[in-house]
Fold these 3 entries.
Entry 1:
Amino acid sequence: MYNIAIYTRISSKNKLQKQSESITNQKNIIKSFIKNNNDLKNSNIFYYSDSGYSGANFERPDIKRLIEDVKKQKIDCIIVKDLSRFGRNYIQVHNYLDNIFPFMNIRFISINDNYDSIKNKNYTLNMDISFKNIIYSYYIKDLSKKIKTGKISKAKQGNYISSFAPFGYKKNKETNRLEIDEETANIVVSIFDLVYNGKSYSQVCKILNENKVPTKSDFKIKNSEIKNYKNRNENKIWKINDIYTIISNQVYIGDTVTFKKRCKNFGDRNTIKSNDKERIIIENTHKPIIKKEIFEKLNSKKRKPQDNNPKNIFAYKLKCGYCKYGLRYTNIGKNYKYRNFYCNTKNEKYNTNCYNVNILEKDLKNIIFQIINKNLLLIEDINIKNNKNSLKYEMLSLKECIKILNYEKSQVYEEYLEERLSKVKYLERKKDIKNKIMQYEEKIKKIENNLLKLENSSVEFNKYLKESQVTKRVIDYFIDKIYIYNESNIKIKWKFKEFIL
């Protein structure tokens, strides 16, 4: 009898995934194989499944869990539908099948490849299996290149290859070409006109927001392009970056730009991450909304990225307590030595509360450092101790239950010997007791792992508390978001759940 690991994998979480490649189908094939093999019947079966992960490497959650269980000797047989499910990297797969698994006495079965390691002892994979594995490896390397080439070819033919049309356009589902959406195109024209006539981005935002012009997200939700918008605020408004994105998008003069990537930070918004060879411009693929000369005039002056600025340790953490948007900063003082964080929403939409939201970086650092050192240690100690005590009590209870079940098992056996139980009833009760014991033992193992995590968390926690000043790694470890109302009113959303169970 084996402890069998059934491993399944699909590279896409798409619900339209072919049925033949689905996780369910793979499981059914493997379970049927086990059922029809006498030496595998009545084995303990454990399931491992990675959905939405490529087989190009072994950086997959459940394949890692499987390998760990193999190391702990919980598994002695692994079954997959075919080798490509286990992995597509020839060298790594070959190493596992020829070196690691034989050394650890693991039986490996690939059903579609007709491979069973127990029948191939003392020699490497046969030529057919090795050849297939090499093909899988080359397939991965070649696939992305083919997809990229295909997309470029479609774009050159005038097809729009992205899933959703840019603001101002709609995508014709039959032709895959962009067509002007009059409702949103008028907003795009208004934005270009305002900027062309000398309005700043913040002034354009204020005009749009005061006139309650729907935002890009509003239209995406309306058209069901966004169904669960987690970051949507009740007072969703036009922001400066929205205006920049529209003004700088070449799509509005009838061109298609493929494989372009821009930095997230507004300060680096004109920096293209991909090189010029990857950035492909295809002209006149659809009807323009804006005249080319207007677009070129507005985009002739490029804003230089501020690479000389010191690193912002609060990046993506600071939010306005009132409007919930991210704070921006400006450098002030002699030689621009100090950084001041503020809410820019006041410039994009009239909001009295947002005017009060500003704080110096050095003051914020001091406040956060004091809070972490004064309060967190006590909170951590209480939480860790409570969780440890709770888990230990649960583990003791489970061990007592196992003792009772073992006693019950011996009693059932005595009843069988004394012929007070039939053989059939005895085997049924024995199996039932055994299954319950296994369930409790699994729970105990999980608790032991959780206790180990708590110990590691406590060590990690104290390591960060020993920092002499607040640093980016301390903030990233402890803090999810910081909401600023004013200098004396700050709320912190902690990351306790990440290290306290």
Entry 2:
Amino acid sequence: MTVFFSILESVGVLLGLGVLGFYIIGRRIMPGNVLGFLSPLVLDIALPSLIFVSIIRNFTLNEFPAWWQVPLWWVFFTIILTGLTLITMRVSNRETRREFAISLFYQNGIFFPLAIISGMYGSDSTYLVTLFLFISFHPALFFSTHYFFFHTHSEQKIDWRKIIHPVLILTLIALFLRLYDVHTFIPDFLMSGLSMLGAMSLPLIMIILGGNIFVDFQGQGKVHFFEVTKFVLVKNFFFPLVFLGILLMVHPPYPVALIIFLQSAVPPISAIPLVTKRHGRNSAITNQFIVASYIFLLISLPMMFSLFTRYYPV
């Protein structure tokens, strides 16, 4: 039960920050248009700073002799996830099947695992390095493939600034500095400044998320209870159970298994309603998928993670 309540506390803190953002925008303490300016601050500056500092401080070849295999495990995860998405999207209504599929496929792969690992194992855990190595190509995948779900790829121009993301750039720079043992030349004041920037990434992104939910839910119309229920059952419960079974068969190293399992169990990435709206599709239902998945995470993730620690011990 200790694991159950530890995960429950980590998820509760995240959702509490989201509620705070919802309240701030709802009470007009901060105007909603500010959120668009804050998001790049988190995703392009604060988060890459956090990743850079974590790798510089915690990565060593003795601790990660097979570090290059971690991105390959991400490829393995993505292939399995693609198959599961193609299969389970069939349970959805045909009219919103593409919204259902895109919400299943792109998980919130950084912030929720970051909060859970920090809460369970500490903010300097080496598991965070595994997480950042694992997820380094995920932003590029999202920005280069999301339009395939809506058959509009012929109209798109490649935005290399989003594909070659600061997350990937800072990950590669930090790895280079550690592998060639030149990280000692980084001034302490620079590391301290980057640490402070990185520390604000998690609380700020959850506040932004809560504010965006308030903005997006204005004039939503009807709630699709049946579709949302199917989505939660698939995303929050079925996916992690399937991946747990696969992990027990393949049995990768525990840090990799931990990250893969968390990736399978977390809610969709928060940018899905935005890209859905840009493609002229039903962004209202993707908002409902995300909110429902976040709320039920209070139940699903403690349950699923308890199963993981029981059958896949350290």
Entry 3:
Amino acid sequence: MVLKVYGKKSCGSCKKAWTFLNRKKVDYENFDIVSTPPTRSVLEKVVSGKDVRSSLNPKCKIFREKKLGKRTITKTEAIRMMIDDPNLIKRPLFVMGDKYLQGFQEDAVKGLIEN
């Protein structure tokens, strides 16, 4: 099963993730999160209904403009906004079969690729 990584060249966490994966010689497919964003069905599985905000990128302009850090947001609303502006998706986003991980934490990525 091939690991899919959605990221952005200008993202520091994405750069760290790619360096880590290359160093570990992990076979992965890289996708630009803006030009080739994850599908709605992937986002439906990634975004937790209990903690929607953890799937959002707080550095994104729309996050600040819509004051998403200060108000309640539903999973449906978050996914709609992510589809409209993929920059709002916390990255990198790792997809491996039916396993998903957002953000780069070395131990979490090791757990994803080793299981």
